[in-house]
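Title: Prediction job returns without error message
Component: structure pipeline
Severity: low
Priority: P3
Assignee: unassigned

Description:
Job completed but the reporter wants confirmation the result is attached to the right record. Sequence as submitted:
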Amino acid sequence: MHLHLLRLLHDQLHVQMIVQHWSGKGGVRMPNIQNGMPAQQLPNVVWRKSRHSGAVGNCVELASLVDGGVAVRNSRYPEGPALVYSRDEIAAFLHGAKDGEFDDLIV
């Protein structure tokens, strides 16, 4: 009985490790998401920009990441680097922007 329980726990841990490292159909390995990586290498992202962005293409785009983070890129260089932030970091920035903390940068 004790050996059976240990084997079951081992199997569960093994499955959890596989789930953490593998995703998608057919066992496709997820890339390591890191700050500054090329934006096109981010898996399964949908980029979006503010409705206040201009039509010229000078926009900041954001995308939710599978790990819960948020990626930011320059729409003029969609293949360029993506800055990766946690949800807490993005929330702090948005609260500051709404409170006017960065208004002096656009004067």
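Comment from assignee: result matches the submitted record. The chain has a mean pLDDT of 76.
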